[in-house]
From TrEMBL:
Classification via CDD domains: TM_PBP2
Top-rank taxon: Bacteria
Pfam families the record matches: BPD_transp_1
UniProt xrefs under InterPro entries: MetI-like, MetI-like_sf
Cellular localisation: Cell inner membrane; Cell membrane
Domain annotation ABC transmembrane type-1: ranges: 75-270, 353-551
Topology in membrane: Multi-pass membrane protein
Lineage, opening ranks: Bacteria, Bacillati, Actinomycetota, Actinomycetes, Micrococcales
Protein name: Iron ABC transporter permease
Length: 566
């Protein structure tokens, strides 16, 4: 009997977890152990460092830190920049979402791709690009915005506007235009139609995108650090300063707790808004308005995209070819010859790139070892109500690293694993483990939609034809998983390659990664160091872009990509 005939004739059975209940329980041990040892323990140790002293409860550190005016200035500066970044991202992203998802015109797909580019770039590259744009001698250097709070906010908008475009545009594209047309036929002006009909319908997606951007802005350590920590800095930069400069781990722990509370509040708002967005997206038909002869919106959005996105990246690329000797490849030649002017020894940029690739490869392996069992577990149609509840709890646990700043993760590694296992820390083994923690939620969110799309009736039919549970897993889920793993591995590699927050705490002096070296060069005086930083950022961007292009080619047909992770 053929497989299609079995699907047609056999009634759908109640799911049972594929007959591998004990094995699924065993499969959960490895990823849960990984999360417990390399996430919960470090974050918990960080929290305990702030609330205990000599093994006893001691909140004096909180009292001292919260009693300082500087603490509240740092908190206000962090929240203010995040709020400004979210508001401006919405202001820029909403018109762009309208044009890119409610209009059809030549070049729309290419323009969507351009708008998405900043979000996949390492934050260090974004920061260096804005330094190249706003520094004296740059195209916009005359504005005097270099190393200012305004520069940081603009970089945040650059990095996050695609989040708004994707989330709001996805809902806008499926709204039925007949309600707006009916309001217009009753005499409502276009602005009143938008305000009274369209905007309420888009409300869940706008709230979700805004809170998510706010979350990303609160944890934009790479951007803020690269742009010079303007003003009093942020909670993340203060954690780094207290740890690396003053060696005051208790005060750093208090700031980490404050950072964690801010991030958890943003996650709560984002989750609530996302749930409303998912309900609003349960619409089957999409509506697009053809481009009219006098519709100037696409041209305006194209010009805006060129100004906001292409200008910083173009400035970075062009200025990377300029050195003290004039125009040429000197900055790129120095990448393999020097670790920076005025400093003896150290790691060259190309050596740091080699280190980054090796570390990212190790981090990818760790991420997949934990992520694949988790994705399989989260997509099993278990019959037991207790098993389904465990799935929901497991899904929430997997997403926890996404809601904790990489700086907090890195600091947690310092106060737990690095202090307890000094030889392991000195070997550099903690860096890929920390990067794997950061990349794990993205990998799981890449695999789950693909595996979840597999019709469980195929597994039941294969079992009816005599296949055992393991053979069903290999022959039904295996091919889909194999293709999706390539996509997930690419994303994990790209995230690890550009990771800066956790790595800045853990990288050893003789085994630096490329983002760390680029930031150090940018902070050193001298035109040669600055030129090498620009060239190194270009190399990092090109490598990351290449990895992302490969990822897109590995995308399974019909896969949702990374949209769910946003």
């Amino acid at each position: 009997m053929s497989l299609p005939s079995v699907l047609q004739r056999r009634p759908r059975a109640r799911p049972s977890g594929d007959g591998l209940g004990a094995w699924w329980l065993l499969a959960a041990v490895l990823p849960l152990t990984f999360l417990a040892v390399f996430f919960l323990w470090p974050v918990g140790a960080m929290f305990l460092r702030g609330v205990t002293a000599d093994g006893a409860l001691d909140l004096t550190a909180f009292g001292e830190v919260l009693g300082r005016e500087r603490t509240w200035r740092i908190l206000g500066h962090t929240l203010g920049m995040a709020a400004a970044g979210a508001a401006l991202s919405l202001a820029v992203g909403l018109p762009a979402a309208f044009v890119l998802y409610r209009r059809t015109f030549p070049g729309r797909d290419a323009l969507r791709a351009v708008v998405t580019v900043p979000f996949v770039l390492p934050t260090v590259v974004v920061g260096v690009a804005f330094r190249a744009l706003l520094a004296p001698g740059g195209p916009l250097g005359f504005l005097g915005l270099d190393q200012t709070t305004t520069a940081v906010v603009l970089a945040m908008v650059f990095f996050n506007v695609s989040v708004v475009v994707r989330q709001v545009g996805g809902l806008w594209s499926v709204l039925d235009p007949r309600q707006a047309e009916a309001a217009a036929s009753l005499g409502a002006s276009p602005w009143r139609v938008f305000r009274t009909v369209t905007l309420p319908q888009l409300g869940p997606a706008i709230a979700s995108a805004g809170s998510l951007v706010f979350l990303f802005c609160c944890s934009a350590f790479g951007i803020v650090q690269t742009l010079g920590r303007p003003g009093v800095g942020t909670l993340e930069t203060e954690i780094w300063v207290q740890t690396s400069v003053y060696l005051d781990l208790r005060v750093a722990a208090v700031f980490s707790v404050l950072q964690l509370l801010v991030v958890l509040a943003a996650i709560g708002l984002s989750s609530a808004a996302s749930a409303r967005t998912v309900r609003a997206l349960r619409i089957r038909d999409a509506y697009a308005v053809p481009l009219g002869r006098r519709d100037w919106a696409p041209a305006l959005v194209t010009a805006l995209a060129a100004t906001l996105i292409l200008l910083p990246l173009g400035s970075l690329l062009v200025r990377s070819f300029h050195s003290s000797e004039g125009w040429g490849l000197r900055n790129y030649r120095l990448l393999a010859e020097s670790s920076g002017a005025g400093f003896a020894g150290g790691t060259t940029v190309l050596q740091a790139l080699e280190h980054s690739v090796k570390i990212a490869g190790d981090a990818t392996v760790f991420t997949l070892l934990a992520g694949i069992p988790l994705a399989l577990l989260l997509t099993r149609p278990f019959h037991s109500a207790a098993a389904r509840r465990a799935q929901r709890w497991l899904d929430g646990a997997v997403m926890l690293p996404l809601g904790v700043s990489a700086v907090t993760v890195g600091f947690g590694f310092v106060v737990s694993l690095q202090l307890e296992f000094r030889e392991l820390a000195q070997s550099g083994a903690l860096v890929p483990l920390a990067q794997a923690v950061v990349a794990l939620p993205l990998v799981v969110r890449t695999l789950v939609p693909v595996l979840g799309a597999v019709d469980h009736r195929l597994r039941e039919a294969a079992g009816t034809l005599g296949a055992g549970p393991w053979r069903v897993l290999l022959t039904v889920d295996g091919p889909v998983l194999l293709r999706a793993v390539g996509l997930a591995a690419g994303f994990a590699f790209a995230v690890s390659l550009g990771e800066f927050g956790a790595t800045s705490f853990l990288a050893s002096p003789d085994y630096q990664t490329l983002p760390i070296v680029v930031v150090k060069l940018l902070g050193r005086p001298g035109a040669e160091n600055y030129g090498m930083a620009l060239a190194g950022a270009v190399v990092l961007a090109l490598v990351t872009a290449t990895v992302m292009v490969v990822c897109e080619r590995l995308r399974p047909r019909g896969a949702a990509g990374t949209g769910g992770a946003w």
